[in-house]
Known about the structure:
Strand content: 15-25%
Low-confidence stretches: 1-9, 29-36
Mean pLDDT: 94
Strand order of the largest sheet: 1-2-3-5-4-6-7-8-10-9
Bound molecules: beta-D-galactopyranuronic acid
Shape: globular
Structural class: alpha/beta
Distance between the termini: 65 Å
Amino acid sequence: MLYHKNKYLKKMKPEIIINILNTLILAALNLNAFSQAETSWKPSKETLEKLTKNQSEINYIEDRVPDYKLPEILVTHEGKKVDNTKMWERSRREEILELFRTNVYGRVPSTPYTRSFKLINEDKNAMNGEATLRQVDITIERGGRSLNIHLTLFVPNKAVKPVPAFLLIDNRGPENTDPERKVKSEFWPAEEVISRGYAIAAFSNSDVDPDNFDDFKNGIHGLLDIVERQPDSWGTIAAWAWGASRCLDYFETDKDIDSKKVAVVGHSRGGKTALWAAAEDQRFAMAVSNESGCGGAALARRKYGETVARINNAFPHWFCMNYRKWSNNEDSMPVDMHMLMALIAPRALYVSSASDDLWADPRGSYLSLYYSLSAFHLYDSKTVLSEKMPPLNKQVISGKVAYHIRDGSHNMLLKDWNWFMDFGDTILK
Ligand code: GTR
């Protein structure tokens, strides 16, 4: 045998040889695990099997993604190439914003209203003295009717003021944002955010507009839609985004908050909203869009996971009526979601996905970010991402953009928030 040709091995006791072999096998396995961890993410076989079993209507197979051509970010309607920030800010950015208002989320009406803030509760000794709690009612009034957005805010007591803040558009109900901190949720990990020197705030999206289709009679629509609704009138996502801006109005009056350093955060339908809020309102310094998928981060033209037709059927109130034109007709849409992300440049943008959440098309979300970089490059040519997706659980940060894909299912967890804050540390501090 080969081993016996080696005089050293010949002299060795068999158990020592077995030990050496075991060590070598373990080392090889570790090496393999390491190289796997470093390879670009792909959906697992098990996840694919689970999702494709007994259904063929929704596509989860990468090879079946159709060829598509994305609309150009840096070419104006007149066909002029945009190669500087002035042109971008003065003309092309506005053109793209208008395209999204007209074709996707709808337009906020110009109805006048009054807005006031009322401190409902303050506790300077919240979280065992670590934070100050403020509960503020933001009241919107028009024509003798009113609506209240209940804002919950914790400010870290030990940090130097004013502090940067994370604002969550909460689409999961107030049990995730308990001001008394009896119920804690990773969806809004207030203690952890406070311990890192940020303020953390949240409002419930349903305060602004309940998440059901009632022909736009309830919520802020009922208050501000005084003229007949048009095909480009605002839908519910635009209403929630508008609500996030009203919270930012409040931050501008709170001396403890640095209102120029506010990150708007949302998960799923909230993640679609966070992107649109930051696109419409340039006061937001950063947007975090977690697993927002169709109508959010994911490129519509890929038709992977949830599609425009599916979302219009399931949630007819989220978008403007014109958005229905793009059901099964994505290639004619004058925008795609890389252009929505471009609207956030040169401010900070975080996109995140989860490995089992193929409904929200992780690859399509990452590619959207990747293709939006041409707008970020107008401000900083050094922002680089690979076209290949990063490995699982590995955050990538370049300039003002960041991305991760976390293992697991559709959710927003402390693990995600820690990465958001790591990126926040490079931008907001
Ligand atoms: C799903 C919807 C997604 C996503 C999600 C959520 O049912 O299809 O677009 O937004 O809800 O908000 O959790």
